[in-house]
Amino acid sequence: MRYVVYGAGAVGGVVGGHLHLAGLPTTLVARGDHLRAIREHGLRLDTQGGSETVTAPATGTAADVGWADDTVVLLTVKSHQTAAALDDLAAHAPPGTVVVSAQNGVANEAAVLRRFAATYSICVMLPSAHVEPGVVVQQCWPTPGILDVGRFPVGVDDVAGAIATDLRAAGFESEPRPDVTAWKHRKLVMNLANGVSACCRPGGEAFDELVRRARDEGERAIAAAGIAMVTPEQDAERRGDLLRSRPREDRTRGGSTWQSISRGTGNVEIDYLAGEVVLLGRLHGVPTPVNELLQRTTGELARRRGPVASLDAAALLAAVDG
After folding, report:
1. What is the number of other CB atoms lying within 10 angstroms of the CB of residue 266?
2. Cys-Cys with 8: which of 12, 96, 164, 303 at CB 3.0–4.6 Å?
3. pLDDT tens, position by position, 35-78
């Protein structure tokens, strides 16, 4: 297959870099300074084993992709960027193109399915970082990540199997999973810590309590909605000891939301993480005060380009309890 990695940031850069290095035809879609750096110098993929320069073709739009019948799009932009990416893809990609959401959150696949019938989903377990133009950091070694794939909304087929085979050839752990959305909902609950780590100074009982309450609200809202979700034990078993983290520099220590605020992007995908739980809670009568506060506070911090991890967790917790 030929791959178009639409969004060559932290996750997309690591995935696209390894696909290219494995000899699989890969085109990277990026933007701004990151795209310029990739075009001028290649994409630098930093791993614990050293740095690789990835010289895959790079573009800022789907219009420049050489589309073929076997092209697969791996959609790796942040969730709040999905609509613009789909507009671009719908304008230029053949209608039968396979589009795979390899993103945080659980709302992207339905948005893709409105535009492309061949919609697939990947549950991404891939700690990575993108903090400067032209560079992505793989934070696990030697296995870069776990990328299980299935058709959306359910099922597996030959396409899912072929994608998993290619991902394994590129060094990832990957299995076809008919219930991939159940795995993505567990990942959503884990990602509810993102707002806390992006906003609050780390450590302390209040920090841990915010994370605990946010995740508890997520568990209850998803259960009330009747949505299938794998257990924490199933998730832990799948991860096993595969994701062995390398020592992190201060600039790469946070998750995806932390990195967005650290780079001063002015926006984050919190509406599709904490905001997803808020939505489910409102639809099904489950109070979600911690996630409501995290959604609002993280969004405000991003918009004013405030310093990452600069707020007091105890003050946020008091605001919830007050």
Report:
1. 11
2. 12
3. 999 999 999 999 988 999 999 999 999 999 999 999 999 999 99
Cβ(136)–Cβ(14) below 8 Å? yes
Tell me the whole-structure pTM to 2 decimals: 0.96
Residues 89, 99 contacting (CB under 8 angstroms): yes
**Which CA distances in Å does 125 have to 37, 114, 116, 298, 320?**
26, 26, 25, 23, 31
Q: Which residue, chain included where needed, has tokens 């302390």?
A: 204
Residue 95: name the closest of 78, 76, 119, 65 by CA. 119
Fill in the amino acid letter for 94.
Answer: P
Decide: 221 and 277 in contact? Cβ < 8 Å: yes
- pLDDT tens, residue by residue, 112-126: 999 999 999 999 999
Q: How far is it, in rounded angstroms, from Cα 79 to Cα 83?
A: 8
Structural domains of the chain, with CATH: 2-178 (3.40.50.720), 189-228+240-321 (1.10.1040.10)
> What is the length of the chain?
322
243-263 pLDDT, tens digit each: 988 666 655 567 899 999 999
Q: How far apart are CA 18 and CA 102, in angstroms?
A: 15
26 near 5, Cβ under 8 Å?
Answer: yes
- Which is nearest to 121 in space by CA: 70, 67, 174, 85? 174
Over range 190-207, report the average pLDDT.
96
